[in-house]
Give the backbone structure.
Amino acid sequence: MLQVRELSVEVGGRTTLVEGSFSLRAGDKVGLVGRNGAGKTTLLKVLAGEMPAAGGFISRPKAFGYLNQEPRSVGHGDQISALSHVLSGRGLDVLASRLEKLHIAVADNPDERNIRRLANAQDEFERLDGYAAEAEVRRLCAGLGLKADRLEMMIDSLSGGERRRVELAKILFAGSDTLVLDEPTNHLDVDAKEWLFGFLRSYKGGLLVVSHDIGLLDKSITRVLHLDEGELIEYKGTYTQYVKARALDEQRRAKIAAHQDSEIKRLSTLADKMRGQTAARARQAKSLDTRVARMESTRVTEARKAKSMRVRLPDPPHSGATVLEADQLAKAFGRNTVFEDITFSVGRGERVLVMGLNGAGKSTLLKVLIGQLEADLGAHSTGHGVSVGYYAQEHETIVRGRTLLDHLREYATDLTDQERRNLLGMFGLPGEMAFQDAATLSGGEKTKLVLAMLTAGLHNVLLLDEPTNNLDPPSRTAVGAALRGWKGAMILVSHDPEFVAELKPQRVLLMPEGTLDYWSDDYLDLVAMA
């Protein structure tokens, strides 16, 4: 069981939780909700032991599974196979290697000691269901939409979405008593989401999940923890039931706050009138001051209203008629050919959607076009007056140890610091966060920072790789509206049908084949599956 008592959390000098308490027992399914920046991701990191708490007590079970919001390096230069990494969730990769070495040792020297060591290792392997483990791993990965051949590949050869699925599979395979999952449906297609919903519904342990996927919250949870302004409030029921209860709670708190404000003002005014009169009146005034102070200390604050985000992108600089050309591009990692013979061009102001299943090379293509990776064959070039901005789905452009303001200074050299802070504010990153280490931001806040950097860069071509991942619904709507009205060219990778529909691409590039087609709304049904 996960127990949390009077927990306080700080990040970048901000207090995001003050003395919050809750427990998570076997069978509990709890959703942690709150606006971008409320501190959900930081709270999960503290619960997982990846960040220190500012105060309080945490007791976590030994078998504890934690899914970080962003794919992480697994060590060893990521030069292990995806299958081995998932098996390591139960330590079976190390145990299988030990068994192999012991078999060789027994063959070379079948003494009593080696035979006993081999027998003990075999007993342990059987106890952990080692002989059935690979089949179980393959079933898990198939459910999450990871093809069988991808399991044989090295981790560093997989796309960000595939690494995310492998990490999730490892956590599910480990058989934890408690699961703490941060945005588990990122990069999952419709079928994989449905499979995950079913898995979590039947999961016997305790579940704490952060997700902007309403389907997950409605289908898989029975309790909601609402985090905002340092306060953790618990609601019973699904996400839909929570929304209704929260609205009623906000109305109730608003009425109580208004009544308290009125009473404090009335008593304070009355006390002021009594001062300077008789000694008895002065004592009464002092008594009223005490009542006011007590009411102030227990005052109910009105629930914070969700701020609407309004993003305005500057008009792009003028460019030539053709902004980008690719000719017979090919890319492979070792023996794995990701794509080949990719040829297309993008005109000024044109929007091209890159579609394909996970591992089809969508992100790799964008990295080749931006120059992060070198093509093995072919060439690409930009047109006259072109300035390219790149949004990386894994936020590679954010540098640990540098503040939000430092990042903007690099991209917006002609702005004052106050103008840069205003730009951060437009993306829902208030001024007090300007000097915070950007690496400590949540996934949604990192998304907003990178979009602010792109805005400051005055580009006329944007390469966008899953730009709506981790954004809460209001922020996603605001970003979609801003990009819809922008007049520059875009090459877009997204599995968000509503976002794609808003941007209205003119053409579709199907990967890994490299087939070009004109956009049709018929493709919307395939977007979420890609």
Notes: The longest helix spans residues 239-274.
